[in-house]
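Pair request: fold both.
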Amino acid sequence: MEQIENIQTVTSHLDKVQVKTGRLAIVIPVYQEGNHIRASIGEIRRILIEHCIDYEFILVDDGSTDNTWEQLAALACENKNITALRLTRNFGKEAAVCAGLEYADTEVLLVMDSDLQHPPELIPEMYRYWQEGYEVVEGIKSDRGKEGVFYKFCSEIFYRFLSKTSSIDLKNASDFKLLDKKVIEAWKRMPERTTFFRGMAAWVGFLRKQLAFEVRNRTTGQSKWSFLRLLKLAVGAMTSYTTVPLHFITIMGFIMFLLFLILGGQTLYMKLSGQALDGFTTVILLLLIIGSSVMISLGIIGIYLSKIYHEVKGRPRYLIADGIREGEKIC
């Protein structure tokens, strides 16, 4: 009798728990990946089908110059669950992710890379956490793979600086994220033209769950992220989420004023006491310090002004040249 009551209690509790269900849209930005994109999509599809997850792919070609678009178009014609979009030119990964997010219309969405460095085996677990009520399930890098020591050092400095100077913590964060529809709607209300998906997804908040993963080696080819592109992304991210660099200018001004008081007092003392020596060493050093400080300060101000310049122009984040869904052109 007691067991029957326990079973009834558990059954009643399960009835109250509403497990979410919905189609999962997988957004993948693609650039110069024509030689392996078909194999990557096949691997992800196999895992989704094994776990009976209703899915659709949104593949965004970011202006590739190889055969990437031909491969995506063929995939979209062969499978009704695949939509292929082609941007008019290479707008960058962030813009391609924007295109996928804005096109999707599902209850839940996942962003991942096309080279399988984000392990697709984690998708069923991420989807399960979403069903349990989490609104953001994000992949956190437990290991950065074969990145060089210099890259790891720069990444550590960047994430520490961003964490200390802004309200978001992106340490070991990645673009491998599963987002609930309400998160995507919040993301769409952010109007900036220069986007940083990782930071924007962290800024919106919501109930979150982190899953650690090791960055795999690429299935083939080389990374398209050169040091300069990573540096540009880092500068864009820092100036999007913190104004601390601007305050550095004020701090430098106070430091220079303090040095002026010390050196000015010493110079006057030497002059009045008749101990002043001929020479320009001190003058040259001062000019170099002041000159470099002024140039760095102008550069920091220039970066912020350029961001304002790009924002006020109000140009679209991207333009779509072609789109194929279920074998038919949609734009």
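--- second member of the pair ---
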Amino acid sequence: MAPLDTAVLTAAVDERDAAAFLHAGIAAEPTLRYCTGTLPDCEAAYVYADGEATVFLPTAVANSPAFDAMVTDATVRTTDGPVAERAVAALRDRGVSGTVLTPRHVPHDAALYAERAGYEVASTDAVERARAVKTPAERDRIATAGAAAEAGVERARELLGVARVVDGRLRYDGEPVTPRRLRGVVDDAIRAGGASPANATRISVAGDRRTADDPVEAGRTVVVRVAPREPSGYRAALTRTVVVEGEGGWERRAQLAVERALDSALRELEAGVPASTVREEVMIECGAYGFADDALPASAGHGVGLAARERPDLTTDASLSAGTVLAITPSVTDPSGGEVALSDLVAVTEDGYEPLATAERSLEP
């Protein structure tokens, strides 16, 4: 993983007239990992002040063979106590005073250590905004997770395609098809593809009006959402909707709407386009098929990286940069109990986009 360009933190500190940046938590937490680089499984803290980045680790971890294999560009300090407390003490020892910026989700104890040391704590999303753009190596890893996502979604389609309808309900291999069973086969396919399901697979039937063990009824929308994680930690996102023996009414119109919305958003993608363009295209296309705003999602997409949902915020007019990874997620819901959703995963390029995860779109399995 590419180290964080500390110019991002310098700009954030200068803009807010702050003195330092602080983050802490488990080393695998995405924002912290974007700061520190890859570390062993442990607690860690990160401080940036006076142009210097420092990582604080438990002594036992820093002296372990696991750490020798890791890469971080920051200076490493060790402690036998809480790493966040040691990081704040280091700021104080260096004579740093004033405001300390932290991510909004910094652990409560880290914020308390800073406040008790006399620092004013203010939140910043500088790291998340900067890391919305992924390097080519990161995009390759996301594409690897995307291939596993495709395998999982296609496995669900295969099973639904051979399921039999008995008394209005789906059966496969002599047993009822349930959301729990579908999730199991999807997760198995993701694992076979070399990724972890990351406890993120969601099977929604008829707008989630069924429990995990209720047999799936013919004619109901089945939405399969996956967000697997490849071995180095990068995620993907992919969504498809399938209907077995559908009547072709509401769900057909909804499918056409979300397909047009997805295609329209993809056509607009290129470096420099305002992020809000994606959501605007989704709302316009779905509205053209007669769906009111309250039937549409609040967001039409999000970034993807070490976390399944990352910046950019598609409700803002910030320009999309080449290398930004986006899940575009149009969907339509119906008050009587239905949902049709699609999502593709792409990377923005200078003149368009690069697909990272996609699949057959047909409603029929």
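Observation on the second member. The CA atoms of residues 252 and 363 lie 8 Å apart.
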